[in-house]
Design brief:
Elements: H1 2-16, H2 23-32, H3 39-49, E1 89-98, E2 102-111, E3 117-123, H4 130-138, E4 145-146, H5 151-158
Parallel strand pairs: 1-4
Antiparallel strand pairs: 1-2, 2-3
Helix pairs in contact: 1-3, 2-3, 4-5
């Protein structure tokens, strides 16, 4: 009798958490409401009822620490100093998670002298040229342009 009652409490706490909590958090919630339990006991009841928490994988940044691709030339050679505006620009892509759209991407172009954003592009497809469009509108092959080492931006700018 008590076994089934505890199983119902586990299921109710699980549903109250919108199916997000695992055994550890459910154990804390049940303990806070006065129901003594252990993590193993909650795990057992969750397994018997087929309850599995929703696990969202955390974003992990994978920087491109490799060498510069063969078809690209490192014009700036990490010399980011400038005398006047519009001598050197740099760009970057930022990944932004939006609730309804999923991952979206913001590519911006910054003038290294004034440190102001001279252009940007925003889109929901990473390889559609989001980074390239903001660069191509102002660049046209005139300025030294710093991008990531990987092919994701620099390949679009050269092609």
């Amino acid at each position: 009798m008590e076994y089934e009652e505890f199983g119902r409490k586990v299921k109710q706490a699980f549903e109250d958490s919108k199916r997000r909590y695992g055994a550890v958090k459910l154990c804390r919630v049940l303990g806070g409401t006065g129901t003594p339990c252990s993590i193993k006991r909650v795990q057992r009841h969750m397994a018997e009822q087929g309850l599995r928490s929703v696990v969202v994988k955390k974003y992990s940044h994978h920087a491109s620490h490799g060498s510069i691709p063969d078809d690209k030339v490192n014009i700036l050679k990490r010399d980011f100093g400038t005398e006047t505006i519009n001598q050197k620009w740099c760009t970057d892509i930022t990944c932004i998670h939006v609730q309804k759209e999923g991952w979206t991407y913001l590519a911006s172009v910054m003038d290294l002298c004034s440190r102001k954003i001279t252009g940007y592009a925003y889109g929901n497809i990473y390889d559609s040229g989001t980074g390239s469009e903001s660069g191509r509108e102002w660049l046209h092959g005139i300025l030294p342009f710093c991008t990531e080492k990987g092919r994701n931006i620099s390949s679009y700018l050269s092609g």
